[in-house]
Structure formats: structure tokens, C-alpha cells
Amino acid sequence: MIKAINVEHREHVSQRTFEDVLASFMDVTGSVEDGFDAVAGALSDRESFERAFKEREGSSGFMRFAVIDHGAWLTRIYDRPTKAVMVILGNPLIAITMLRHHTGAGLNVPVRIYLYEDTKGRTLVSYDLPSSLMSSLEDDAVMAAARFLDARLMALATMIAGVEA
């Protein structure tokens, strides 16, 4: 099966420096970078799972699953000074609100956010709205939960960028 979908892409063009935006992002997100599977695999019931991940979320309600510093390797290997970080972030307690209705939602949770400095020296916070990515599932319950995730992601991006998209 092949489906074409329309994806809503958002970019917040910040007046803040890349370093300030990245620091703000790190401050308001928690981390499970030590290994989601290891943490989840050590838990045997819903209560301990929810408690463990509630403790790992940041004030934004999100946690980082992985941070990929594209800027580091672009600068070092290709001699192209770049500031760019892609982060896989989410919260399994939010993900379950979609996954319980359709496991296909797992393709798009956790989500990705990209913080980078463009060639004009501007800092951008970029992401695709989860609800637009999940529209192919054609599931009203998933879409309602995904719109909640949209709002949380937009709020995070606005907070760290200091400006709406």
C-alpha cells in the first residue's frame, strides 16, 4: 500500500543565539539517552513504568531519546562550520495515548526536532507536526491524541525559540 500525505512543517526563526536555544532546550527536556529499552525492560508493571518515565521528563513534559550533533561532524570532517542538532524526543506516557489506538503511530513517536543555524546566522527550530505525519492512519482517536502532542511540541518550540512559527 502506498499513501501520499501532506505534512505540516514548522520553523521558528529565533532572535536568540544557537547556543542559547540549545541550552534552553536541554534545560526543559529530561533524558532517557541512557537507553529507553534498558529502563523500560527493567520495569514489570504499569505503575512502575509510569513513575520511572515521569521522573525522567523535563518541565516541558518531554525527554530526549537521542541527540545527533550534525554540526560536529560537518565541521570536523567536511570543514564546514555548522551548528545543527537533531533530537529524537518524546514521552512514552504521551505516546501511549496514540499507540493504544493504533500501533502504526509508533512510526512517528517519538518525534524529531531540529535546532540549527542557517547560512544567514539565524537560529531555527524546525519540526513536522505529528498529527500531519499520522494522518495516514485515518484514526480519529489517534488524531485527537496527536493534536495534543502537536500543541505540546509547538509550545516547546515557542518557549525555546522565544517566537512562534
UniProtKB/TrEMBL annotation:
Domain DUF302, chain residue ranges per copy: 68-129
CDD domains: DUF302
One Pfam family, short name: DUF302
Keyword annotations from UniProtKB, A to Z: Plasmid
InterPro entries: DUF302, TT1751-like_sf
Keyword Transcription: no
Annotated protein name in UniProt: DUF302 domain-containing protein
Lineage: Bacteria, Pseudomonadati, Pseudomonadota, Alphaproteobacteria, Sphingomonadales
